[in-house]
Amino acid sequence: MQKFILFIGIFLTPVVQKAQTFEPQPPLDIPLVLSGTFAELRDNHFHGGIDIKTQGRSGMKVYSAEDGYVSRIAVSPYGYGNALYIRHPQGYTSVYGHLNAFATEIDQWVEDQLRDRSKNDGNLYPSSEQFKVTRGQLVAFSGNTGGSFGPHLHFEIRDTRTEEPLNPLEFGLKVKDTRKPDVRGLRWTAKDFNTTGSFKPGDTVPAAMAVGIDLFTTDKQDLANNNNGVYAIEASVEGKTFFTANYRRINFNTTRFINAHINYDLYCSQRVRFTRLYELENNPLDLTTTYDITRRAVRISKGWISLAEDSVIKVDVNIKDFEGNMNAFSFYLKGAQRPMMGILNRTVLPWNMSHSLTLGPINFTIPAGALYNTTYDFVMGDKGNGQYVIGGGYVPLQRYMQLNWTLDSTQIPGVGWFLWESDHKGKKSAIIGRREGDEVIFETRSTGTYELDQDLQKPDVDIVARGASSRPNSSFKQITVRVHDDKTGIERYSARIDGKFARIDFDYKQELLKVIVPKDIPAGNHNLRVVVIDGVGNTTVEEYDIIL
């Protein structure tokens, strides 16, 4: 009972004690409207911050949340895109992602540093004295860079010591929210993973063997209809808590274990993320806790509920958002007669063992700890036409699986080999490998259908305009070049103006290389040389006469 009381104390008290000494201001001067909440369930990770809407546009002024200094600046085509990290004396670091540009002084320093190093992107670490900032100081402009698919500001607060993201709303940032979370789906899963079913609040669910409960829940704030994540979940039986989820702190080292936290089979079949109110064997996440319960007619272990035949129990579930709006519902489980099980021929892969298997020309290894649970009926087979199924895209992996593909006598002389990986819906992704003699070796943290292919085509490169245009929110100008590769994608690129290095800002979403013109190049006619290389090394070199 003591653990239950402790959880309820957390459930009803959102503000952490340490947060009382750190009260950051909002990073934008508009009302905070969220398109994403902290620890929201995403592809292969929990969301590390909050996504703040910027009224559908880029270029909004971004302000430092508190006094401090710029400790890190990241420039990347992917992930957070252009990002700024400000360290604060209270022991926290604020992070601002998907930026369009940095404030003028920082922007100039970044361009100088990357140009001096002949790098297009990377991480820069100014000294603690270089860019001191005060609360409310302009530090950047919002944008849509990196892995963002719409203008917004990604904002985080991290524990500086551990680098773990914390829920920013626990530090006093206000978002108007009077709406309770939604219950959008309920499922039960038998412990043998062979049978499942759906139900509604108030229903009585027959349980012939140990079952786990899967919950699809989202939350909306007042000023937007985005289906965001919730703050906490609690499930109990007869007043005894057996499962809690508390989304207050995440760890980047374990964030991929979200694939154990959600029901991955349901995600594949319905494209929605049901939270498991039970634990798989390989799940070290700290944000969930299960409590074992043993009574005369019921036994609960790791969230799996076993009932004596004909016994009935009531299960209560509470879902809460940060503002304390709560959705509480109940349902019943009734013990049923266990069905007779025949003898099955099943491919069983224990999660804590390494597995080396062969399929046609492929020898593949799934390392110990890659699976989230002992996997039954692992799918593998030859589809014909050089296509091989390994897991079918329905089995997520925590660690990399290695595929050694042996080339036949007709393939050995060839070059440009790569692998198509198709997921359970047939969506293809290119995997680049390395050649070792008669084998090509690939690594992936997914499963799917695999097919060997060749990329022998050079990337397409074409200049958009020969005159320079202004960069948004920046004092620099740029020349824009369009690039495309339909198989292995754009891997590397470089540019030189009159033989001297010029940095490229790669917008992969629009397939654009934005060549940033150094300020020391005078106006007039100049030569631009662009080199673009795809994933297997096919190279295109183009030269253009440009006007600055």
Ordered list of secondary-structure elements with their pairings:
Elements: H1 2-12, E1 34-36, E2 41-42, E3 45-46, E4 50-53, E5 61-63, E6 68-75, E7 82-88, E8 92-102, H2 104-116, E9 122-124, E10 132-133, E11 138-142, E12 152-159, E13 164-166, E14 182-190, E15 196-198, E16 204-207, E17 211-218, E18 232-237, E19 240-246, H3 258-261, H4 264-270, E20 275-276, E21 288-290, E22 293-294, E23 298-301, E24 304-307, E25 312-320, E26 326-335, E27 355-359, E28 362-366, E29 380-384, E30 387-390, E31 401-406, E32 417-422, E33 428-431, E34 434-436, E35 439-444, E36 448-454, E37 460-463, E38 469-470, E39 477-484, E40 490-497, E41 500-502, E42 504-507, E43 512-517, E44 525-534, E45 539-547
Structure description:
Mean pLDDT is 94; it is low at 1-20. This protein has four domains: 2-171, Glucose Permease (Domain IIA); 182-335, no CATH class; 355-454, no CATH class; 460-547, Sandwich (Immunoglobulin-like), CATH 2.60.40.10. The strands form nine sheets. Strands 1, 4, 5, 6, 7, 8, 9, 10, 11, 12 and 13 form an eleven-stranded antiparallel sheet that branches. A six-stranded mixed sheet has the order 16-26-25-18-19-21, covered by helices on one side. The radius of gyration is 27 Å and the shape is flat. It is built from four helices and 45 strands. With 548 residues, the chain is mainly beta. The N and C termini lie far apart (73 Å).
